[in-house]
Structure formats: C-alpha cells, structure tokens
UniProtKB/TrEMBL annotation:
DNA-binding region: 130-227
Domain of life: Bacteria
Hydrolase is among the record's keywords: no
Species of origin: Paenibacillus anaericanus
Keyword annotations from UniProtKB, A to Z: DNA-binding, Phosphoprotein, Transcription, Transcription regulation, Two-component regulatory system
Protein name, entry field: Response regulator transcription factor
InterPro entries per record: CheY-like_superfamily, OmpR/PhoB-type_DNA-bd, Sig_transdc_resp-reg_C-effctor, Sig_transdc_resp-reg_receiver, WalR-like, WH-like_DNA-bd_sf
Amino acid sequence: MNNVKGIKILLVDDEPHILQFLEFGLTNEGFDIRSASDGMSAINIAAEFHPHIVVLDVMLPGMDGWEVCRLLKKNMSNIAIIMLTAKDEVDDRVKGLNIGADDYVVKPFSFEELLARIGARLRNQFPTLFGEVMLGPFRIDDRRKEITYLEQVLELSPTEYELLKYLVINQGIVLSKSTILDQVWGYDFGGEENIVEVYIRSLREKLNDKEHRLIRTLRGAGYRVDLP
C-alpha cells in the first residue's frame, strides 16, 4: 500500500503475540501505530491519538469489544473499526455491524487479508487522504464524485457511483446483497434486496461487462469485482 504516512491505526487485543505481530507488520508498511490490551485503555488512547482505523478484538478483559466499538463510534465522528473475532457466526457479524463496526476479520487471519481490508476502509472512508484512488482500470475521485474506467468518465447516478465505488474499493472480497444494502443504501433502507441486482445490471451495461468478468456473481454468496 502506498502513501500511508500519517495514517494512524489503533490495535486492541489482549493477546501479546497478536499485538506484536500486527505492530511489526503495520509499522513496516509505514503506518503510525498505537496499541492497547483492554477496552478502557483503548478508549483513552483513541481520545488522544485520533486514529483513522481501529483493529478491535471482540474478546477483551473487562469492557468487551462490542462496548468499545459503540463508545468509539459515539464519541468520534469519523473512525473506521475492523472487528477481530474468533467466532465465524452470523449473529456476531450482524451485532458488530449494528453497533457501528465497518468490517470484520475472523481469526485466524492472514496479514495480507487484514492489510487489504484496512486499505479498503481507508479508500472508502478517507478518500481525501489519497486524492484520487487508482485501482486497475478505475480512477475514483470522491471529491468530484467521478469514476473513470479505461480513461473514460462513466455517466453514473449518485447511487450507481456509490455502489461501483464500494465494489471496486473492496475488489477481491465477496460482498453479499445484505452487506451492499447496508453500506450503499443504509441500514434503514426498507426496500427489497433485488434492487441490488437492478443496479448491478445497469453498471455492467455501462462497463460493457457482458460476460460478467469484471463484476462476478457468486451464486448464493453475492458479488465480487475482479480487477485485471
């Protein structure tokens, strides 16, 4: 990942070997790192450090990760939280998203996966840190709300823009319809999941993706963007 100087990440986990592993890897990537081993320390450090990203374990002594997440989201206007959980349970993921978590990674995880998810959160929530985001044949300019594909500016509605940006920024990650609805349309959207299919079809037409090689459908799972 390029141009990460000045980007702050707070790591919260009560397992020393995980903290050391993440501190070493993310520091080598160029991030500014702080760490905490319990919830109250995380709250206090975040108030002083003002991190862009918090990598937050669910199972913590005293105050658990859910409560830390809720308090951080309540007290800080723009912060991205990636939950670490040892439980690959739908209920845990739903609970985390409902209290404000932006993403989750299930333990055990690879450093490369976590780094990719950190990059996706930064591009999605802090686009001005990078100016224009270049990903494969796409250039995303969030200040102009403009996406260029193969050097051509796409004519997109506001919702199409947000959907395509979300798909491209999370390239390589399978995104379910429900996740897309929550992130693009919002948690209070009361419509049908089929609206996602309608907008995906429109984007494929505008991208001339007739064979669905760019925006892939994974039956029963969702969609994934594969960039050349």
